[in-house]
Amino acid sequence: MTIVYIISAPSGSGKSTLKEKLLADVPGLLFSVSYTTRKPRGKEVEGQSYHYISEDEFERRLANGEFLEHATVFGKCRYGTHRRFLDRAQAQGEDLVLDIDVQGARQLKSRYPEVVTIFVLPPSKQVLEERLRARGEDTGEEIQKRLQAAAEEIRNYSAYDYVLINRDKDEAGAVLSAIVLAERVRRTRMEDQIQPILETFRV
Fold first, then answer.
1. What is the pLDDT of residue 102?
2. What is the reported pLDDT for 139?
3. Which of 23, 118, 131, 134 could be cross-linked to 162 through a Cys-Cys bond (beta carbons 3.0 to 4.6 Å apart)?
4. pLDDT at residue 87 in the model
5. Is there a contact between 128 and 147 (Cβ–Cβ < 8 Å)?
6. d(CA 74, CA 36)
7. 4-200 — its CATH code?
8. Range 151-160 contact pairs with CB under 8 angstroms and sequence separation of 24 or more
9. pLDDT at res. 92
10. 10-residue block means of pLDDT along the chain (203 residues)?
11. How confident is the model at residue 138, as a pLDDT?
């Protein structure tokens, strides 16, 4: 049974780095590349960072029921998770990793209560601001907007199953991998493997 892991975090929290480390360290994971109407930034690559589409194309796909979840960020850019990634993960016997915001996480959790949600927190607002400035992708005004958005997102941390504080990327990456591996051996997910073993003991 495919497990869906949702990772959410304010912009600049190091979520992308942690996600890449997770995919490299833990086998059997498929990453869902979101669709967005915004333009590429920095070193982003089509098909790896996002699928970049027009507003009309996004609306068409939404009307066709292609998205498992969708959200509008900063009142203009739209993001969506295409259901084909879940279909592919299920067909390949893999688990699915989603990098989505709190809006999308809320939608998916309401539809699929069994999804595993993980919120990545920066150590402080000051550290988050330093990381945003170090990226060199945003103006001072845009950074302030991101910090304001971060404050709104962080208020939703209690809705998540796990909260991961990213003080050190290696330590945080190890914890994230541990969460994924632990969820795979949760008893309720293991019954189909446990029962044949019990039968050998006539239990």
1. 94
2. 87
3. 118
4. 97
5. yes
6. 13
7. 3.40.50.300
8. 151/125, 153/8, 153/9, 153/10, 153/101, 153/102, 154/10, 154/121, 156/102, 156/106, 156/119, 157/119, 157/121, 159/102, 159/105, 159/106, 159/109, 159/117, 160/8, 160/105, 160/117, 160/118, 160/119
9. 97
10. 96 92 98 95 88 96 96 87 97 97 94 96 95 86 91 95 96 98 96 94 83
11. 82
Which is nearest to 23 in space by CA: 184, 173, 183, 186? 173
Residue type, 185: V
**How far is the CA of 27 from the CAs of 31, 94, 116, 177, 183, in angstroms?**
12, 9, 17, 10, 14
> Given this model, what pLDDT does residue 42 score?
79
Q: Enumerate the H helices of 26-81 as residue ranges.
A: 55-63
Token pair listed for 149: 């958005």
Enumerate the domain spans of the chain. Answer: 4-200
How far is CA 175 from each of CA 87, 167, 179, 185, rounded to the nearest angstrom? 28, 12, 6, 16
